[in-house]
Write a structure and sequence with these properties.
Helix content is 59%, strand content 10%. The protein has 39 helices and 16 strands. The strands form 4 sheets. A 6-stranded mixed beta sheet has the order 7-6-8-12-15-16, with helices on both faces. It has a 5-stranded mixed beta sheet with strand order 3-2-1-4-5. It has a 3-stranded antiparallel beta sheet with strand order 9-10-11. β2 and β3 form a beta hairpin. α9 runs parallel beside α11, α13 runs parallel beside α15 and α19 packs parallel to α22. The chain is elongated and about 110 Å long.
């Protein structure tokens, strides 16, 4: 065995034993043989030293790897020429090291040299071009030059498709990298599509037990994770772990990456123990692999620091963050996004500890690094600017704070627009959108403290609220409208399949495993399958092309748009509940407050602080409880006493909510109210002033899901097969159990007859279902109708068995139809129509829907997105104007109010028709009982921008 052969064998053994420093020294000696003119062993030495350089890079020995590659580059130039494929390969590997260590300018130079050499030696479509093009694209992605990155990835993928075909594993690798750039651009829908295609190709060609397949699962999960779609991300991460476990040999680094990502997901879900467990496993693997300082070790340390920060253990968090920062500064040497991230995190610790003067320098460094490496308009820069705004305010510089916050708002608006192009479910968008609410609250806290008299700042704040509040509902409504307008037979088939899946999921969510003969695991499996089926059907609807870019893009609404659409003498009151940050001390547990913007048709805008949300919500709860007790009371003396209690509670609410805006509503006869939080459940028309006069006597009131509704053009008059559809007096079956069964509603028979008679001349085409015909099936398969009137029971479930009650809040409320008291639980469930199912109906041609049922305006509410119940469902189904109840209604007095409403509806706009009906009922009650109980005249509210249009 000659010396070179012996040394090669020894080199290989050193690599196996991970004695990398000794191996590196030996490799450098081997390459030095060329300096003495011994070129006979070039191929042999090149092969092993090249292999060793890659091993050293993989294990984090960057300097040793770089030294060997530079030596090999010198050897290639001496032995071959400066234009040879081994020379190009050496440049490529040098570029990889600089890319890993964040030296992007040198990486860019090396990759460009590699490409230039290959262009001189190879045809333009040669597959050898794909790798350096891909790597240069990665440099551009990491430095924020995303359009350049996308262009190069397209070129790299074009070459691979030309060389290998669309279904080759190399093409799958290109798609994976392509997706990463889309993800960085915030184009999540395209990222998901590319990752899915890459996964499909890799599974097909590499099998189910290959590290690249695990990588694709991990990357696809990361997009959903980033968007807050945790329920979709977690199973994908778990699939990655399963694939890696099944691999004969797998990269431990990838296993650590997946474990780290799962830890991050659990942290986002506030499952601290699970997060810490996965983070520590990942750190343990990384420290075992790399031992010395490495970016992946820093990543783990940074994430563990973030976990301790979330738990309020600031000293531990600070320790981990500084360890991470030390590694990152040591490895990268210059500006790198990861250094910016750690600086931002350390600043956050100081901010949480009430040390703004220590926080600001770290935020400034974080912003400078992020803008230099990722660009001025990157989402990370927006978050840092928001954090800096709070620090400037804490340090007594509100002008600087406002400038930073408004710059951040602009960046985040771009991010939100991108989120809405991703095809994810409504709940998932809510999860993602919720992450930005803190910054909106901080901005409004800043404005209400310092700038509520500044017209420009006030206008910006109002428009931000207009364009953020109810955004998810608005986009889903637009998309639904686009689909319903083009229901061809093919699309109708998908639409009907989706409705069936919604129905099956709803039945499952309001039941328990025993109702379906399932154990808990079977139940959860079935639920997941139905949820997956819905996602699949929604994707199929999107792919038909009927939902275009404009249907998913939030329309920018301005103050001028809105004021121009307000009638003279009308006013918008836009309420918003915020966490009020005082910017001093800790940011933990801020007090919540209600604010209200008022806008009239002249464009006059004001912002008013209504004070503590807790106090307001306690009063609201007390008022609603008093009203319900009054409603349930059987004795006249007790009823009168309780009515006084309701009056007092509503008067106190008047003092809290209405008196501060009284000057603004003077001489206004039409008021649009866009509530937030618990105020969605408040009967504004029943607030009494100090003279005992309810607001209903001053003005007509219409509720809105969000103020932006007023900017939309009026709906065209619909042409329908039916003018009026009535469902009333359902035959629920025998009433046996007072706790579980639904009482008969015989009074609704008269209600139905009255409506038919009143509307017969103007709305002659009538469909009426009563008793056994008042079924859920008849309703959901009904022909389009201008007016829908449903007189039945409503329901709202406070607790759902086997489910987080907020998992899908639209499954918690609904309407009850014939057969609901059936002994068979399946039959009984089939007689309940949930709000979730209603979202799948086509009610776009319905001008007015009246829900003459108990508590149909009720539901769980989410700040900024309204009531998650029937209100939201009928809006998503396309109804223009909705009339509903806020509490249990009377089966005897309600028909009188409904009679008056429809009689007025023939000649008046909807909101005015309800107002006159309520005034008529007040007079009727006073004439017959001597007083007008709020519970009897004010249960109904009307909602919709068309409530003041005929």
């Amino acid at each position: 065995m000659n010396e070179v052969t012996f040394l090669h064998t020894h080199l290989n053994q050193l690599c196996v034993e991970r004695r990398f420093e000794e191996a590196a020294s030996l490799a450098l000696y081997l390459t030095s043989l060329f300096e003495n003119g011994d070129h006979s062993q070039f191929t042999y030495i090149y092969k092993y030293t090249d292999y060793l350089a890659e091993i050293l890079r993989h294990w984090g020995k960057y300097r040793s790897s770089l030294a060997i590659n530079h030596q090999m580059l010198w050897v290639c130039n001496q032995t071959l020429s400066s234009y040879s494929l081994p020379t190009a390969s050496a440049f490529q590997k040098i570029g990889n090291i600089h890319l890993t260590t964040g030296n992007y300018s040198r990486a860019c130079h090396a990759f460009k040299r590699s490409i230039a050499i290959k262009r001189k030696l190879l045809k333009k479509d040669h597959p050898e071009f794909a790798v350096p093009l891909n790597n240069l694209a990665e440099v551009y992605r990491r430095t924020g030059l995303l359009e350049k990155s996308l262009h190069l990835h397209k070129e790299s993928m074009r070459i691979r498709i030309h060389s290998f075909g669309k279904e080759h594993a190399e093409t799958g690798a290109s798609l994976n990298n392509f997706a990463a750039t889309y993800q960085a651009m915030g184009k999540f829908k395209k990222a998901v599509s590319a990752y899915k295609k890459s996964l499909e190709i890799r599974r097909k060609h590499l099998g189910e037990a290959h590290p690249d397949v695990a990588q694709s699962f991990n990357n696809l999960a990361s997009v959903y994770h980033f968007m807050g779609v945790y329920d979709t991300a977690l199973p994908l991460y778990q699939s990655a772990l399963i694939v890696l476990t099944n691999c004969h040999q797998f990269p431990q680094a990838l296993m650590a990456s997946v474990l780290n990502n799962i830890g991050s997901l659990y942290q986002a879900k506030e499952k601290w123990d699970e997060a810490e467990q996965h983070y520590l496993k990942a750190l343990s693997i990384r420290e075992a692999i790399y031992k010395d300082k490495h970016p992946d070790v820093a990543n783990s340390l940074n994430n563990i620091g973030g976990l301790f920060k979330k738990k309020g253990e600031y000293q531990k968090a600070e320790s981990y963050y500084f360890k991470a920062l030390d590694i990152r500064r040591n490895v990268f040497k210059q500006n790198h996004p990861d250094i910016g991230t750690t600086c931002n995190n350390i600043a956050g610790i100081y901010q949480a500890r009430g040390l703004p003067d220590k926080a600001l320098p770290f935020y400034r460094e974080a912003l400078a690094i992020t803008q230099a490496t990722l660009g001025n308009d990157h989402q990370a820069a927006g978050n840092i600017l928001n954090n800096m705004a709070s620090i400037h305010q804490a340090l007594g510089d509100p002008d600087q704070a406002l400038g930073a916050s408004e710059e951040a708002n602009f960046i985040q608006d771009q991010y939100i627009h991108n989120i809405f192009h991703a095809n994810v479910a409504e709940k998932q968008k809510l999860d993602c959108f919720r992450s930005l609410s803190l910054y909106l609250d901080a901005y409004l806290s800043l404005v209400i403290r310092n700038f509520k008299k500044d017209p420009a700042a006030l206008k910006n704040a109002f428009e931000l609220v207009l364009n953020r509040k109810g955004l998810i509902l608005d986009i889903h409504s637009k998309a639904g409208k686009a689909i319903r307008s083009k229901l061809t037979p093919k699309i109708r088939k998908i639409w009907d399949e989706r409705l069936e899946a919604l129905s099956q999921l709803s039945a499952l969510l309001i039941g328990s495993p025993s109702d379906f003969g399932m154990n808990s695991i079977m139940y959860q499996t079935r639920k997941s399958a139905l949820q997956g089926r819905l996602v699949e059907l929604e994707e199929r609807l999107i792919k038909t092309g009927i939902v275009g870019y404009k249907d998913l893009r939030p329309n920018k609404v301005t103050l001028e748009n809105l004021s121009n659409n307000l009638n003279p003498g009308s006013l918008l009151l836009e309420f918003i509940k915020i966490r009020d940050y005082d910017f001093k001390g800790s940011w933990l547990n801020p007090e919540s407050r209600y604010l209200v913007f008022s806008l009239n048709s002249k464009g006059d805008l004001n912002l008013i602080d209504l004070g503590s949300a807790e106090a307001m919500e306690q009063l609201t709860s007390k008022a609603l409880t008093s009203i319900q007790r009054e409603r349930n009371s059987k004795e006249s003396t007790s009823k009168r006493s309780l009515a006084k209690g309701s009056f007092q509670a509503l008067f106190k609410l008047y003092e809290k909510i209405w008196k501060p805006v009284e000057e603004k509503v003077k001489d206004v006869d039409q008021i649009f109210i866009s509530p937030d939080g618990a105020l969605n459940l408040l009967p504004f028309p029943a607030l009494f002033d100090d003279k005992g006069i309810p607001l209903i006597e001053r003005s007509a009131i219409s509720y809105l899901s969000f103020g932006r509704e007023l900017a939309a053009s009026p709906e065209k008059e619909n042409s329908t097969d039916t003018d009026l559809t009535i469902i009333a007096n359902p035959d629920f079956g025998k009433f046996l159990d007072q706790e579980k069964d639904f009482r008969p509603l015989q009074g609704t028979k008269k209600e139905s007859t009255d409506i038919q008679n009143i509307l017969s001349s103007k709305y002659p085409k009538q469909t009426v279902w009563e008793e056994k015909d008042a079924t859920k099936s008849n309703f959901i398969h009904a022909k389009a109708s201008k007016i829908i009137h449903i007189a039945t029971h409503g329901f709202f479930l406070k607790n759902l068995p086997e489910n987080d009650p907020f998992e899908n809040p639209l499954s918690r409320s609904g309407l009850v139809f014939a057969g609901a008291n059936a002994l068979s639980s399946n039959t009984a469930k089939a007689s309940k129509l949930t709000a979730l199912e209603i979202t799948g109906l086509d009610l776009s041609q319905t001008d007015l829907a009246v829900l003459s049922a108990c508590s149909t305006g009720f539901g769980s509410f989410q700040n900024g997105e309204g009531v998650m119940g029937l209100r939201r469902a009928f809006k998503l189904a396309g109804v223009n104007t909705l009339m509903m109840s806020l509490w249990t209604i009377s089966d005897t007095e309600t028909p009188t109010l409904i009679h008056s409403f429809y009689k007025n509806y023939l000649t008046l706009i909807p909101a005015e028709a309800l107002r006159q009906a309520q005034l008529d009922t007040i007079e009727y009650l006073k004439d017959n009982y001597g007083y007008a109980a709020v519970s009897l005249w004010a249960p109904f509210i009307i909602q919709g921008a068309n409530a003041f249009r005929k």
